[in-house]
Amino acid sequence: MKAKVKNDTLFKSQPVLSSELQDSDKVFVPSGSEYELKFFAEAAEHHLRLELANATLADQTGFTWYVAQSDIDLEGGSVTATVLQDTIFKQQPVLASDLTDAEKAFVTAGTELELLSYTAAGSDYLKLTLVDAQLGNIDSNVWFASTEAIKIAGQQIMLKAVTDTVLKAKPSLSSQLSAAEKAFVSKQTTLALQSYDEIEGNYLKITLADTPLGDSDRFTWYAFAPDVEVEGTEPHNQPQDSNPAGQVQTSDRGELLNLPGFHGTYYSNDPIIAGGYFTWAQATHGSTRIPASMDVVYGMIHIAEALEEIRVLLGNPPIEIVSWYRDPATNLRVGGTKSSRHLTGDGVNFVVEGIHPHEVYAKLDNWWGARGGLASASEFTHIDARGYRARWAYQL
Q1: Mind listing the pLDDT tens digit for each residue in 7-33?
Q2: Contact present, 76 and 129 (Cβ < 8 Å)
Q3: 123-137: b or e for each residue (b if 16 or more CB lie within 10 Å)?
Q4: Furthest C-alpha separation in the chain
């Protein structure tokens, strides 16, 4: 990740007005300067905190500096938005006539913008986090754009600390680690990731995309999952799956199922939750994908409870299951990621009759919160119960 200085500016030791600092606490930096970053974080008074990777300024030895957001461009990964037609970027996903002039920015066809991340925002809009914070008259890098007016290319994974936390060289208690095996990360810090995996103990194993972190210059760290959120996904996460098992309005209970660790009698057309809408046939792809373990069955039950809540929340519409449980071979065949929650039974792709997937995403975003992952595609919505907040959009 790189910071590009676009206006002559001052790097400061604190996020305050320059006039409040001693000369020794600020450094003049000319337009055009570039610095490799370990990470950046939002700070007070419209500042960014920059942790420089390998450069010092003037006679200063520190690597941590604050700079006005409007004076910096952040160069991220390979995610771009191309504007297909003259359009208006907005501070809220509403009609342009409902916004002040300062809350909207005219953008011409052919404009290309580099993104840090993007997610769906209702059926008609995408929420874009721009690398360049300067667009229009507002000092903000978050804008909403019509889905019909832009085309997104590329993917990137960003990890954001939602509280002060410690990255660790091993998934152990901080008290059991040396100083070189820990790296303090403040709230709102954003890190670009090459990849991440879930491991036991409620940790994420993360691999940084750009520069190492900590006194030991490590690229691989362990983050406590409740302390972070993930936005974005792997570049080739494009699952292509379908489910032959729809709703069955019949007294036929279907095929007898053998669910690992469960000793009762279960049939494919039985509801997973007593009196519920969703069946074991839907979870097992028409009884062709039998759970590999008792943990997978519990995963199915857990997300089935959430699906029942979702159906009530949306007014009890018909819901079609596109993809639920996948064994490893199936997951590889349909293009799922190696850490897909479909493997553990608590990940589901579904379609709600009469409601666009982007609108479903928008309705569920705050409701689902940090309970798990939520993603949208043009044809379906994904939800899972991973236990920490993750958001992304499929390019399908």
Answers
A1: 999 999 999 999 999 998 999 999 999
A2: no
A3: bbbbbbbbbbbbbbe
A4: 81
Average pLDDT over residues 108-118: 88
What is 256-393's CATH number?
3.30.1380.10
Q: How many residues does the chain have?
A: 396
Which tokens in the block code for residue 18? Answer: 């320059």
**E-strand spans in 147-202?**
150-153, 157-161, 165-168, 182-185, 189-199
Q: Give whole-number Cα distances, 324 to 207, 239, 328, 377, in Å.
A: 28, 12, 13, 16
Could you give the angle at which helices 357-368 and 294-313 cross, rounded to 10 degrees? 110
Q: State pLDDT tens for residues 176-233.
A: 999 999 999 999 998 989 889 999 889 999 998 877 888 888 899 999 999 999 998 8
Q: How confident is residue 168, by pLDDT bands cut at 50, 70 and 90? A: very high
Q: In what order do the strands lie in the sheet with 104-107?
A: 104-107, 87-90, 142-146, 125-130, 112-120, 80-83, 150-153
For the chain, residues classed under CATH 2.30.30 are 80-153, 157-231
Task: Give the model's pLDDT for residue 248.
Answer: 60
Instruction: Give whichever of 57-71, 116-130, 298-312 has the largest mean pLDDT.
Output: 298-312
Per the structure block, which two tokens stand in for 335?
Answer: 């293009």
CA distance 178 to 263: 48
> Does 2.10.260 match the CATH number of domain 157-231?
no
CB within 8 Å of 32: residues ≥ 6 apart: 4, 5
Rounded to two decimals, what is the model's pTM? 0.76
In sequence order, the 6+-apart residues with CB closer than 8 A to the CB of 226 are 202, 370, 387, 388
Domain 80-153 in CATH 2.30.30? The answer is yes
Helix (H) or strand (E) holding 300: helix 294-313
For every residue of 18-52, DSSP letters joined together read GGGS-GGGEEEE-TT-EEEEEEEEEETTTEEEEEE
Contacts for 261 with CB less than 8 Å, ≥ 6 apart = 293, 294, 297
Strands 72-75 and 134-135 turn out to be: unpaired
Residues facing 48 on adjacent strands: 42, 67
